[in-house]
Amino acid sequence: MSTHTLNPAKPSDQATSDAALASAARRRRFLRRLPFNTVLLVLFLVLAVYPLFWLLTSSFKTQYEFLNSPFYAMPEHFDFTNYREAFVTGHLWTYIHNSILAVFPALALMLVLGIPAGFALEVMVFKGRGAFLVIFLIGIMVPGQMILLPLFTIYYKLQLTDSLWPLIITYTATGLPLTVFMMATYFRAVPRELFEAATVDGASIFRSFWSVGVPVVRNAIFTVGLVQFFFFWNDLLIALTFSNSNDLQTLQVGLLNFTGQYGAVDYGPTFAAICVSVFGTLIIYLILNQRIMRGLTAGSVKG
């Protein structure tokens, strides 16, 4: 009578079996949740894409279609009459031109002043550094509505109200505190060994800033500039306060001029102008999305 003994399972075989079972369990959970995930995705697409689709199709409707057709109805004809009216009769290009002249110089000044300030407050060591940082934090907390009347009085006395300088100066000043705080946060994530090595090699503080600090945080600089660009470009309150004539109005203020006499609105050109504003900034964001994400996460971890 022969006796047979069973060979024990090898540890490697047991681990493979456990991994296969775990993988199968994950697949089953995924399949169970697939309908729920699909519904969420479709709901998200409807909420995010349909308003943009409706805005775009509405820009091709005639005034008669706006007044007599359901809001969800498609336009009968797709032509660019409304866009031509927005640019020619509504002076849309003048408003875009003014926005460019006001936003980009303010953006450049803000970055030129804010990046070195963030570097100095975080990397350099000097007496009163903490107090300066607190001052910039206080600047973030001050509501913009509180400073508009004093600023308007100052600009009027300096005879700057007939130009775009009030917008440039105000945008720079209001964007500077947040820029300095964010740049200080990004410089905090840069390893100090880099600056120490540059100092050992004989680099001055200015050389360390330009050759070490700026290249390391360039994605962060790009992100801060783009975020502030969206704030400035979409601003209405400041531009409405300091734009005294139609020739100086920015895009967001100019959209208000599409309201006619007694509050009547020519909806076609108005929607066309809104599309130019919305889709212009949306295209910029979609093109630069990856760099924005890299910049936003650059200061989230140390080293």
Give a quick summary of the entry.
The chain is an all-alpha fold. It is built from 14 helices and no strands. The chain has a domain at 90-298: MetI-like (MetI-like fold).
Supply the helix-strand structural class: mainly alpha
Looking at the overall shape, the CATH architecture of the domain at 90-298 is Orthogonal Bundle
Strands, total number: 0
Q: Uncertain segments of ≥5 residues (pLDDT<50)?
A: 299-303
Short key terms for the protein model shown above:
303 residues; mainly alpha; MetI-like fold; 0% strand; disordered C terminus
Structure characterization notes:
The protein has 303 residues and is mainly α. The chain has a domain of 209 residues: MetI-like fold. The protein is built from 14 helices and no strands. Helix 4 packs antiparallel against helix 10. The C terminus is likely disordered.
